[in-house]
Give the backbone structure.
Amino acid sequence: MEVTDVVCPLCGCVCDDVVVEVEDNKVTKVKGACAVGKSKLMGHGRITSPAIRENGILKDCSYDAAIKRTAEILAAARRPLMYGWSSTVCEASKVGIELAEEIGAVIDNTASVCHGPSVLAIQDVGLPSCTLGEVKNRADLVIYWGANPAAAHGNHMKRYSYISKGYFLPEGKKEKKLAVVDVRETKSAKLADVFIRIEPGKDYLVLSALRALLLGYEDVVPEEVGGVPKKDLLELVKMMEETKFGIIFFGMGVTHSRGRHNNIVNAIQVTRAAHKHTKFNIMPMRGHYNVNGFNQVCTWETGFPYSVDLSEGYAWYNPGETSSTDLLMRGECDAALFIATDPGAHFPGESIRHLSKIPVIQIDPYANPTTEFADVVIPAAISGIEAEGTVYRMDNIPLRLRKIVDTEYMTDEAIMKGILKETRLLTLSRRL
Amino acid sequence: MAIELLIKNGVVYDPINGVNGEKKDICIRDGKVVAEVKNPTVLDAKGRVVMPGGVDVHAHIAGGKVNSGRLFRPEDGRRGSEPKTTACRACSGYSVPNTFATGYRYAKMGYTFVMEPAMPPLAARHTHEELIDTPILDNATIPLIDNNWMTMDYVKSGDIDLLAAYIAWIIKATKGYGVKVVNPGGTEAWAWAKNCDLNDAVPHFDVTPAEIVKALAEANEKFEMPHSIHVHGNMLGHPGNYEMTLDTYDLVKGVKATKDRPVMHATHTQFFAYGGTTWGDFESKAKAIADYVNNNEHVSIDLGSVILGDTTTMTADGPMEYSLHQITGRKWTNHDVELETGSGITPFLYSGKVSVHTLQWAIGMELALLIKDPWKVALTTDHPNAGPFVGYPILISMLMSKKRRDESAADMHSAIYKKAELPSIDRELDLYEIAIITRAGTAKILGLDAHGKGHLGLGADADVAIYDITPEERDAGKIQKAFLNTKYTIKGGQVVVMDGEVVAAPAGRTFFVTPECDPKLTEEMMPNLKDKFEHYYSVTFANYPVQDAYVPNPYEIKAPMRG
Ligand code: SF4
Ligand SMILES: [Zn+2]
């Protein structure tokens, strides 16, 4: 059976025109997805059973037992952390936030280790942006900065930017220009009309120079900035001024190099300076397919996008104090729930050492380094393949993931609801 | 077993049924107003003021731009922190409250229905997700259809029937309530960093904003829609815009309504009632607008009245937000939406020490006081644009008290005595008129009176507000306090607020309209629509419509096509 309009549950592009072939309840063929998307949709090894660690060994158990054990851990914890949420649907996050309120947890998503600096920058200066279809139809200048879509967002150029055709650009890339700014010549850079190679950690300087040039202060810009000759910068500025509609897509190369959120503030200021000449936009290249969705839900439910501390009954947001790594580095939390993420692979070593001392719950379809030390492991249905639900594309467009095959596994939402119910029973009986 | 409630000894203001301050009992069974009850729980109102639940005609409470406002203003979030209670989730925010706070705070003011008036169709799921998370309030939301490429195609070809087929499709696809217009043509122009006057050609589309407005009004009236088109016109917030505002009203004068209501609702009119040519000679033209509304029957308005203080402005009028940001230099977010619309957000401080803000403050109230027939006026602040909805009680107390207005004016910029009418207006609204501009009239403007809202007649929804004042109360401070926190709010027969505290938070319902288009027209329109998806949208045709899962508590209103 052929299923059309499948929504890919992998990266922030959330391609929704994938076609899959399903036979005997298995995906057998995938068309229209990029290589990584295809590999996820085809399916691979997964956790097969809920399990609880006893004497250092994970022992299979029922869903009920794993959920009960999770509730016991969370209800007993004084400073629980609930982290992940970027590769699951908003419906699961909603239950998660309710549970976090119930137990006074800190709830956080992977933004705190990826585009958190972008959020801080937006809170400082705002974000002049648009949907990806605007880019497709209008953008005659596309700039990727510290982002390598050819590797990380396989369909981004083809569906939305440089290689796509649009209403005002019916000839596609023939009518467009592509600029790439990066510290090395990436696969994306090889496609570019202009590649600007900057020295590592010099994004802020180069952005400042561009800003000065766009605002008419050519005299203050030296002959070379961050390893880039001034004439190359002048050329880029000319392109920016002459475009009818330009966009900067920025990636973790900017958020995670020296300067962090200040780089993004500066990139947004560059966008605003360019906007004095023409239409200019900027957008973060969000990584996981629903990292944005968690930030959206957390914002409308708690008022704040991530790193929200609910221990006092109201939402307290102060990244630097209330992010997962802050909490773990201070050795503060005494239980942790990880859902749809792998802190074992992404968190600094020191915080992992703390995790080895406290009870850890993992909810995920797939085994990963976190499984090695989790005390409770709960396998979940794969959102977008075995479960439906809402996700937010990198440009804030909400889409509904489809369920394309049946499964015996519980969905993230159902697991979270089970944990919420059991935890409430425990906290209630404690109060009585 | 039937759940029954009896509200005794209240002094009832129910303008739709002509009830003006009568001592009257209200019987409730299973969420509806009934003639009698057998075994009710009794609520003794003890001579307090009783009104139907409030109906807000226009407040930005849910969706993408509201959430971008929350996200980029943690400083606003912190202003409204409240811990969770047994009945309530944790709250945050002042001008951009979280969804839970929105539901609770409205309920505390005695409101039970709110219209979210600006849904970008492509992001409709987002608006609905937030409405699901907004407790207590029944709600609806209006899709933005004016800067839309399909709309402009049919405006250009002059094919109103196909335009009607398209608006029917998109209202259904977004589970929307009607047709919203925001800076017609101007927001499309903003995609190129430009803007449009009422009679400018929209770049590349060869139509004018005036043509768009007229065509949409005509297309809307092809169906028995509960609500007229809902219009935010061109050049909002610009000195001297009042003439363009009147021209916009005039565009639809000849359009015939399918129902007993106006053919245009002009929203947050305060921002459109400006004289002068610059901010220097800026002045109030509320009187010109009021004169027009007094002499015509085809337009209703809401105020968009200013609440002094810091707030977050947000609208689909992208170029307007950019100019505001240029004035203040404060942070600015913009989000243009392919083929459809856009939006901008920037914080703003209304100060009584600044002449322009003082005049804006006066203009909103002038409109309320100079328009003679309260059924044509709705009380709004265009939340959060001119101020947050929690400021309504301040406005109510001002409109009811000349003394309070005079005292406030004395503290503000002296421009109010030279360039505004307010100080010379003696009118004070009474409770009956307040009930009209906050529930009865707004329900009628939205066509919700036929669906149990805005009144307390037999069969009406048992949405009731009991305010802790008697009809004789003249103290503006006490009036304000009473309208901020009810003695009781009853929603669907259930007590949700008691003594100013939320005691229960049931889910609200979402009202949506199904325009029933002739299938032949839909079929004729479809190839053009599919072509847009095939070539220009970034999502597929199949993934676009809002699934039923996003409207878990639906209330459908069918709008048959006029034969
Ligand atoms: S670009 Fe991203 S969303 Fe699209 S197919 Fe590849 S992995 Fe999936
Ligand atoms: Zn508005």
In short: Residues 412-431 of chain A form the longest helix (20 residues). The mean pLDDT of chain A is 96. The first strand of chain A starts at residue 2 and ends at 6.
